[in-house]
Design goal:
alpha/beta; TIM Barrel; nine-stranded parallel beta sheet
């Protein structure tokens, strides 16, 4: 079946299944974080992702690369990814060095998802002009790519080069976390896959993918083959538990999706999350692949509160079994 958006293919491709930790409050303990990644690897997940969050009590992840380094030491095959490594906050050469070290440490398993950030407090606290965040992202990425090429960079009388270089050539895959139209156009102008947030409805995804594809083509760049999305997923064979989770998400969280940027309107839970019994989850994921050409699904537990960690763990395991990754 052909995609309706994104690169044209003749058949739906096998799904790359990724995951984020199901217990975000434990992410600062290497053993607990590593255990989640090890279990994901054993269940068939192909990538393990961490966001970057600052100043959020109980769930802050200020340095995802450092945390992923601990995961790299405890796993062997699963890819390691950042969903939003915030380049406007970074010194480009230092960031290039740190990314290269993690890529070497993991044996070339890193996928670098980059972002701009959005919270005013973030930019104010770090002394960064919010209005310049897209320019800062581009300038930082340009310097990082140049550094990864092994070329000398800097002023004429103080040129230098970094070491080590990344294990992957010319550098780890780069995805761009994007939400609004300007961010989507920037992702396309860079020729990078656009990593969709868990808070976009199916119709919004369809529209955003078109914006991204058009931006790639306007820049004279190939449209990336990867079409990655993040989704809130809960899979269980317990019908009462499924009904409870769906009810909670409908009443507590759908308003967050509607008000995310003022553009998304009234939504149903199935427009932005995947919650149900195994057959239902499989059918809905098939729809994403067939209608949107999705190639990568990153499973997250965003906004599923009030459940024991053990229940979330069972859901993550059953999701992998259901989708056969």
């Amino acid at each position: 079946m052909r995609r309706t958006v994104g690169p044209t293919i003749d058949m739906v491709q096998p799904l790359h299944l990724g995951m984020t930790p199901w217990s975000l409050r434990d992410t600062h303990t290497a053993q607990i974080l590593g255990r989640q990644a090890q279990l994901g690897e054993s269940w068939g997940y192909r990538s393990f992702w961490l966001p970057e969050h600052h100043f959020t009590q109980g769930s802050a992840i200020p340095d995802p690369l450092m945390l992923l380094a601990s995961v790299a030491a405890l796993t062997t095959e699963i890819r390691l990814g950042t969903t939003s490594y915030l380049l406007p906050l970074r010194q480009p050469l230092l960031a290039a060095e740190q990314v290269a070290v993690l890529d070497q440490l993991s044996g070339g398993r890193l996928t670098l998802g980059i972002g701009r950030g959005y919270a005013p407090q973030l930019f104010d606290t770090f002394g960064v002009e919010r209005s310049r965040k897209r320019l800062l992202l581009k300038n930082c990425l340009d310097v990082m790519k140049q550094a990864w090429s092994g070329k000398f960079i800097g002023e004429t009388d103080s040129k230098t080069s970094i070491a080590p270089l990344p294990c992957q050539e010319p550098h780890p895959p780069i995805w761009v976390a994007a939400f609004g139209p300007l961010a989507l156009k920037q992702a396309g102008s860079l020729g990078c896959p656009y990593l969709a947030s868990p808070m976009e409805t199916i119709e919004r995804l369809r529209s955003n993918l078109k914006i991204h594809v058009e931006a790639c083509r306007e820049a004279g760049l190939e449209v990336p083959e990867e079409v990655p999305i993040m989704r809130t997923v809960y899979c269980s064979e317990d019908t009462k538990q499924v009904a409870k989770v769906r009810s909670r998400l409908e009443s507590e969280s759908a308003n967050v999706v509607r008000g995310a940027d003022g553009l998304q309107k009234e939504t149903a839970i199935d427009d932005w999350s995947i919650v149900g019994e195994p057959d239902y989850v499989r059918d809905l994921v098939d729809r994403y692949q067939e209608e949107l050409g999705v190639t990568h699904l990153v499973v997250t537990r965003l906004r599923i509160g009030g459940l024991p960690s053990a229940d979330l763990e069972k859901s993550v395991a059953l999701t992998a079994e259901t989708l056969g990754s």
